[in-house]
């Protein structure tokens, strides 16, 4: 029982620090946030932060993983609502790109994330998303709906297109206007994997 209680307390501490980090990074950005923003908000000591995440960069990595994983889950739900399969895959990509309009996603995941943590394609959350895309493409390939090319390569390029579109929207001077262009281009590019070509969005 004592071991379980300790594990619960550690998980609670991590959750508090991640929540405090998310708030501070969203409001002040990575560069502007300081240690006291995280610890005071969570009611914890710096020692707890160092023990759980090592430093501010480690906390950012945990916050980015939480948000990006939630984005992937939300995109997956959009795909399910679209009926799965090819329409679902397009809907997932579009939903991910559209989330670039959310202020905390913009600042934490799409602006500070790459500049502090490096290549987003190497993040654990992006790898999980890649595996899900590969699984969907394999199902479509079995049905003869996509071209017979390497599924990992196809998944990486499709996910990369959605990610880079989201990065473009987030960094744009007019994100709303850029979103429309990004979505149309993503659908046009993605449709290139279909065994039978459809018309690109104008």
TrEMBL record:
DNA-binding region: 34-53
Protein biosynthesis found in the keyword field: no
InterPro entries: Homeodomain-like_sf, HTH-type_TetR-like_transc_reg, HTH_TetR, Rv0078-like_C
Full protein name: Transcriptional regulator
Pfam families: TetR_C_41, TetR_N
Superkingdom assignment: Bacteria
Keyword Thylakoid attached: no
Domain HTH tetR-type: 11-71
Entry keyword set: DNA-binding
A GO molecular-function annotation: transcription cis-regulatory region binding
